[in-house]
Amino acid sequence: MQKELTGTESGWWIVSLENKVWLPEGNLPSGTARQWSLQGHVAHAIGEWLGETVWLIRHKMAADMSSARLLVDQDTKLFQLAGRGAQLAEFYRSHQYCGYCGHEMQHSQHEWACLCQHCNERYYPQIAPCVIVGIRRDDHILLAKHQGHRGRFHTVLAGFVEIGETLEETVHREVMEEVGLKVRNLRYVTSQPWPFPNSLMMGFLADYDSGDIVCDPVELISADWYRYDNLPQLPGHDTIARRLIEDTVALCRQQ
Q: pLDDT per residue over 233-244, tens digit each?
């Protein structure tokens, strides 16, 4: 549903543009549109949270535009909804014109899609699959500092799936490329949408097989084996990375 807001509408408000979300005082705003001075904006209903409609407004506020990552430790479902909004806002922004014929696109009223009425092409939001893996060696876990995280914490290895690869092949390739190790006993654990900007992370556990750590300096600052009861600073509790670390720690304790 899409409508121009009169001010009486209520719910949760995802105001997003350019992969940023409006988070006044670090929270997703809720209440009436008038309360947040949103009347006159066009909003899409994109879901429901705690019995209230979740609205998306494609707009950039003058202040408090932040990454949806700030919500990951508050509630997983709320984070996913904010991520959906940010991804949809970016999808609509990047698909204003048809990539085949150049004509202006229209928004579908029935699904998340953009339509070209000139050449009849239909575009859907694209999701980039990536793998993330916790690796165990006896009672130690492999953790790394990533260049993309600016070394703020240690976490497990991850990487994007390439064309023609299975998820399992991606795990083996990424581990070899980033740290020069071979792994075995690969098993799937869980997945998590990760809107930075449009990923779906699929988590695995694996056991060390062979090799010595040789870091790829483009991807990693450092990597090493850490005993399960002496771990460095880790990612947030509601992330898939933390889930894999905790699952690996549980396995280590069984040793």
A: 999 888 999 999
